[in-house]
């Protein structure tokens, strides 16, 4: 039979199994163990259990002895060295302007090495830093980069619930947590509400995820079965099963609670009555048919009627008016009679002095202005072109 005892090196760390041998141990005792990293001090975290074989199937390391007075003095001395080395390392980091954050320093029980834990966004070249620390403390230096979750576990603290962090008290390993767990539990997807002090999603989101997942699957399965039963009843020619009545105080779907009516629908805003200009009748009266066109009154649509003015035309679309009315007020052009000579001074006419020449010149000016406008130039392209200038007239004036 093997007497197995569980110990942990620091508070909140993982529990490791050791062979207790013939040593009588109780919960909370400080012991000296022989581990893969060397001799170290640990605290008993589990009671001694007898078993025929180790849980992992591999031979266990042995517990050397209970801690004595000299062991406690060495532990106190190591704590002082850890504080001093932390201060020196922090100073070296600032001098070298290294982008890293020192979290903790641990000295081995036998002073064989010192481990420096730090966090950083990327890779850090700390070779020169290791040389300075080794020269200062005359010990083997080990730099170990950790994540933000391990940092929170080492430093400890209190979560949004007001209790100590789960990772620093009883959690052994970090389980993967995703935003899907928060969605499944119908939580508010606010990063400030679902994130811990480490900046990652809280570990407690996974505690009840399996329950919510199974509950929603059961509800979906039950709803599908009810739909199949209703479809089968309708196919047989019968009536669909009655929907169970809702609980007292709960309104059925699609009804407003306490009214028995459907959801409220917003209609056109009704005019108010009993105030000047607010009803459909005379000012200050309600229920009377007002006369349109009087100031201070409203029509049935709720908009005030504008009094008719002299010269107003009926609100008719311009396209619906006859062509003769649309052209009313425009100068009528009389087409030239066949064989009649053109009038002098008319552009394009043979009788006007320089008619064709001026028309071609105006056309060239417009073409140059359009080219410069398309190119986006700020300066002119001739007499008529140029950015920011007034375009040339569309129709040239005739000769005088």
Low-pLDDT sequence parts: 273-296, 344-353, 378-388, 396-400
In angstroms, what is the radius of gyration? Answer: 46 Å
> What's the story with the biggest beta sheet?
6 strands, antiparallel
CATH superfamily placement of the domain at 73-146 = K homology (KH) domain
What is the CA-CA span between the terminal residues?
129 Å
CATH architecture type of the domain at 73-146: 2-Layer Sandwich
Rounded mean pLDDT is 75
CATH topology of the domain at 73-146: GMP Synthetase, Chain A, domain 3
The overall strand count is 9
DSSP helical segment count: 8
Helix content class: 25-40%
CATH class of the domain at 73-146: Alpha Beta
Strand content: 5-15%
Structural class: alpha+beta
List the helices and strands in order: EEEEEEHEEHEHHHHHH
**Morphology call:** flat
């Amino acid at each position: 039979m093997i007497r197995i005892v569980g110990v942990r090196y620091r508070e909140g760390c993982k529990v490791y199994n050791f062979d207790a041998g013939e040593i009588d141990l109780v919960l909370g005792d400080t012991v000296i163990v022989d581990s893969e990293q060397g001799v170290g001090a640990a605290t008993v975290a589990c009671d001694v259990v007898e078993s025929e074989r180790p849980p992992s199937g591999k031979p266990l390391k042995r517990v050397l002895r209970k801690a004595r007075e000299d062991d406690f003095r060495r532990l106190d001395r190591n704590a002082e060295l850890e504080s001093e080395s932390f201060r020196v390392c922090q100073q070296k980091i600032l001098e070298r302007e290294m982008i890293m954050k020192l979290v903790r320093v641990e000295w081995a029980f036998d002073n064989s090495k010192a481990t420096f834990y730090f966090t950083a966004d990327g890779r850090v070249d700390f070779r020169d830093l290791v040389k300075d620390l080794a020269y200062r403390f005359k010990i083997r230096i080990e730099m170990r980069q950790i994540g933000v979750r391990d940092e929170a576990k080492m430093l400890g603290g209190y979560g949004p619930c007001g209790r100590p962090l789960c990772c620093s008290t009883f959690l052994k390993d970090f389980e993967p947590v995703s935003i899907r767990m928060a969605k499944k539990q119908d939580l508010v997807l606010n990063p400030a509400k679902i994130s811990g002090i480490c900046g990652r999603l809280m570990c407690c989101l996974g505690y009840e995820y399996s329950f919510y997942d199974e509950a929603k699957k059961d509800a979906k399965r039950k709803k599908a079965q009810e739909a199949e039963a209703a479809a089968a009843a309708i196919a047989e020619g019968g009536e669909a099963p009655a929907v169970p009545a809702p609980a007292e105080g709960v309104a059925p779907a699609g009804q407003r609670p306490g009214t028995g009516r459907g959801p409220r629908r917003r209609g056109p805003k009704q005019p108010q009555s009993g105030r000047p200009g607010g009803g459909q009748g005379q000012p200050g009266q309600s229920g009377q048919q007002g006369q349109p066109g009087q100031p201070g009154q409203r029509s049935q649509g709720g908009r005030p009627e504008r009094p008719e003015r002299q010269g107003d035309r009926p609100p008719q679309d311009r396209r619906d008016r006859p062509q003769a009315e649309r052209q009313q007020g425009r100068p009528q052009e009389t087409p030239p009679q066949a064989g009649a000579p053109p009038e002098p001074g008319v552009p394009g006419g043979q009788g006007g002095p320089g008619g064709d020449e001026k028309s071609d010149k105006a056309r060239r000016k417009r073409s140059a202005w359009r080219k410069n406008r398309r190119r986006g130039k700020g300066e002119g392209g001739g007499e008529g072109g140029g950015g920011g200038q007034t375009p040339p007239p569309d129709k040239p004036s005739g000769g005088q």
